[in-house]
Amino acid sequence: MIEQTISDISTLFERSGNDAYFGEPVTQLEHALQCAGLAERAGADDETIIAAFLHDIGHLLPPDMAGGYMDGYGTVDHERLGADYLRQRGFSEKVAQLIEHHVNAKRYLVAKKPEYLARLSEASLKTLEFQGGPMTVDETESFEKNPYFRQILQVRGWDEQAKETGMVLPDPIHYLEKCYNHLESRLS
Question: Model-level pTM?
Answer without folding.
Answer: 0.91
